[in-house]
């Protein structure tokens, strides 16, 4: 037996992944266990879980692999400082003690944390090797072009190459400070969202704006060559030497200061979002075209933070030169743990790779699961009133019935997702046809006002009927955006059109029903869809089928099972706590159905407030 543990840690979203004889046994982010969003600490809990899942102990591990090379990264920080000295002194003195203490002692720290792993060799892969490996090795392709688009690892920010059978070869790169990820993050910061997590909000804001600043970006900020390579004018940025992302010159160029977090969103912010989104898409398409020209390969795989930009992915799929693309669902740094482990198994140990027709990511359902017996014992202890279904069919029928009654349902099933998105294992679901669902879910369950609609889940076989996606394509990891099909759009009245074009309240705009599935239709008719198939997620597939047979609609709303700022729930305890603290109507824990109406007395206002107070705003 060969056991390889991959680890990413100490920056953002720590995670662990375990391969046993090449088989992906388990993978999870640390935040789910510690309940601290984006937890960057050593992933002790995730490691413990992975080992338990495999039924082995640390002493059985042959390799422990860390997803980047700390010394090379330190060299980048030092060189960047010297290049900008003395300008960067403040950020330098903030960063360096942490580096000296934590990161340069990495070898010792990992050895200490993994004290039981006495025989394991400790290996450090490069940051982009880890991302690239996570994009190619689990993909359904024997051969593919590889593109990673990221903020920054050691030096590299963008890299491309080719994967064939059990090897990847990375040939071209763009290095720091020129970075598509940091460019997008700079605009995220300037528009008042959090770097490293608010990028998704900026992408969601873009449909409200017009790309009026795109020319200014192309002319002054980033010079893009026909092959997609780019050079950024660093006078507009401050991330090399300062503690902010953008500089005064940036504010002057766009005639706007950085927006204060949580303050009102104005049209100019939406236009900024639309502009940087457009330029990002152009660059991604240009690089993809170039790679295709150079390699002649039909498939492309992607990873790195920018690969989570599902609007760009959607355009790549529809307009790009590749027949098909596959995007690693844990494309951020959490996925580095998986890539690092796979890099060792295939590339270093030269083990053969067998390609699965779906892919080898198992729906990214790689985390903990709990049996119905476990759930039942827990609910009994907690004194909760519930109904246990012995037959899956009856359970599915009951949940579908509740969904048709406009109930909001917490859906906790099987193994927890690896990566940032809830894919139907730790999800809150509802009827996508309901015009009220968007605001009900936002205001009464997630406790946020949101200008973003929710994401749809749709039966794989019905997807092209409802969305503008080719029947041969799929989006199993919610990483592709497509428009709602023409036949499902509704004609707007004059009043509605006026609200759409004039209302300053974005929530009012997004609540104008524009299709048969308004809860998941954005203002530009786009939707972040997840296609659900029988192989990856059979139970959710049955539920969608049952809902379709009752309503004619194979689409439901899917949002992550948490409140604002809370990591997605992991265990039944987390799910029940979140359920009780919100106005969710129904909780389905494996085969047990819990109705809020039967458990009302247990919920107090103070309990809800104390649950919400545990999590900082995201
Ligand atoms: Fe990264």
Q: Please state the structural category.
A: alpha/beta
Ends distance: 42 Å
Mean pLDDT across all amino acids: 91
Helix content: 25-40%
Round the Cα radius of gyration to an integer and report it: 24 Å
Strand order, largest beta sheet: 13-21-20-14-15-19-16-18-17
* Ions and ligands: fe (ii) ion
Count the DSSP helices.
Answer: 22
Largest sheet: 9 strands, mixed
Report the portion of residues in β strands.
15-25%
Assign an overall shape: globular
Number of strands: 21
| Contiguous runs where pLDDT drops below 50 for at least 5 residues | none
Folded structure, characterized:
The chain contains 22 helices and 21 strands. α6 (127-136) crosses α13 (336-348), α9 (214-221) packs across α11 and α11 packs across α12 (310-319). The longest helix has 29 residues, at 267-295. The model has no long low-confidence stretch (mean pLDDT 91). Bound molecules: fe (ii) ion.
Would you spell out the secondary-structure blueprint of this structure?
Layout: E1 3-8, E2 15-20, E3 23-29, H1 31-34, H2 44-54, E4 63-66, H3 70-84, H4 89-103, H5 106-113, E5 121-124, H6 127-136, E6 143-149, E7 156-164, E8 167-175, H7 180-190, H8 199-205, H9 214-221, E9 222-224, E10 230-232, H10 248-254, H11 267-295, E11 299-303, H12 310-319, E12 324-327, H13 336-348, H14 372-382, E13 387-388, H15 392-404, E14 409-412, E15 426-431, H16 437-446, E16 455-459, H17 463-466, E17 480-483, H18 494-502, H19 506-510, E18 526-532, H20 538-551, E19 555-560, H21 572-581, E20 586-589, E21 592-595, H22 605-613
Helix pairs in contact: 3-4, 6-13, 7-11, 9-11, 11-12, 15-20, 21-22
The structure holds fe (ii) ion.
């Amino acid at each position: 037996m060969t056991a390889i543990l991959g680890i990413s840690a100490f920056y953002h979203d720590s995670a662990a992944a375990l391969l046993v004889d090449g088989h992906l046994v388990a993978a999870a982010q640390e935040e789910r266990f510690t309940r601290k969003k984006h937890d960057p600490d050593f992933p002790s809990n995730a490691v413990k879980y992975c080992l338990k899942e495999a039924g082995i102990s640390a002493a059985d591990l042959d390799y422990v692999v860390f997803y980047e090379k700390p010394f090379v990264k330190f060299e980048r920080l030092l060189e960047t400082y010297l290049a900008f000295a003395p300008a960067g002194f403040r950020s330098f003195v903030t960063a360096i003690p942490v580096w000296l203490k934590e990161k340069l002692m990495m070898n010792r720290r990992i050895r200490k944390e993994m004290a039981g792993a006495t025989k394991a060799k400790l290996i450090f892969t490069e940051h982009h090797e880890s991302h690239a490996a996570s994009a190619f090795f689990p993909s359904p392709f024997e051969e593919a072009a590889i593109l990673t688009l990221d903020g920054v690892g050691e030096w590299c920010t963008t890299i491309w190459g080719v994967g064939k059978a059990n090897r990847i070869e990375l040939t071209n790169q763009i290095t720091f400070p020129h970075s598509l990820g940091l460019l997008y993050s700079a605009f995220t910061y300037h528009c008042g969202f959090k770097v490293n997590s608010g990028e998704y909000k900026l992408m969601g804001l873009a449909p409200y704006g017009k790309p009026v600043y795109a020319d200014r970006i192309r002319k002054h900020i980033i010079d893009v060559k026909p092959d997609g390579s780019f050079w950024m004018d660093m006078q507009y940025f401050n991330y090399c030497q300062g503690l902010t992302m953008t500089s005064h010159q940036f504010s002057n160029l766009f005639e706007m200061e950085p927006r204060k977090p949580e303050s009102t969103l104005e049209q100019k912010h939406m236009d900024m979002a639309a502009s940087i989104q457009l330029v990002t898409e152009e660059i991604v398409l240009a690089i993809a075209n170039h790679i295709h020209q150079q390699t002649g390969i039909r498939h492309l795989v992607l990873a790195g933070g920018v690969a989570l930009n599902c609007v760009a992915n959607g355009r790549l799929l529809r307009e790009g030169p590749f027949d098909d693309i596959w995007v690693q669902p844990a494309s951020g740094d959490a996925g580095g743990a998986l890539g690092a482990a796979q890099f060792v198994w295939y590339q270093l140990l030269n083990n053969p790779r067998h390609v699965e027709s779906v892919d080898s990511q198992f729906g990214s359902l790689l985390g903990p699961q709990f049996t119905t017996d476990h759930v039942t014992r827990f609910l009994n202890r907690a004194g909760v009133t519930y109904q246990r279904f012995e037959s899956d069919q009856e359970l599915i029928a009951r949940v579908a019935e509740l969904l048709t009654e406009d109930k909001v349902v917490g859906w906790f099933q099987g193994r927890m997702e690896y990566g940032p998105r809830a894919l139907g294992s730790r999800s809150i679901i509802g009827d996508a046809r309901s015009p009220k669902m968007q605001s009900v879910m936002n205001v009464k369950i997630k406790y946020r006002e949101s200008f973003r609609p929710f994401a749809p889940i749709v039966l794989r076989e019905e997807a092209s009927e409802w969305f503008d996606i080719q029947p041969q394509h799929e989006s199993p990891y919610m990483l592709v955006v497509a428009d709602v099909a023409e036949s499902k759009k509704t004609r707007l009245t004059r009043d509605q059109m006026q609200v759409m074009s004039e209302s300053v309240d974005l929530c009012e705009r997004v609540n104008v029903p524009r299709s048969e599935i308004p809860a998941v239709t954005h203002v530009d008719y786009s939707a972040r869809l997840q296609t659900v198939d029988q192989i990856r997620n059979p139970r959710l597939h049955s539920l969608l089928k049952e809902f379709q047979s009752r309503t004619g609609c194979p689409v439901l709303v899917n949002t992550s099972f948490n409140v604002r700022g809370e990591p997605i729930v992991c265990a039944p305890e987390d799910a029940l706590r979140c359920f009780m603290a919100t106005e969710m109507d129904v909780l389905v824990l494996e085969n047990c159905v819990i109705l809020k109406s039967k458990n009302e007395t247990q919920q107090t206002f103070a309990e809800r407030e104390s649950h919400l107070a545990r999590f900082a705003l995201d």
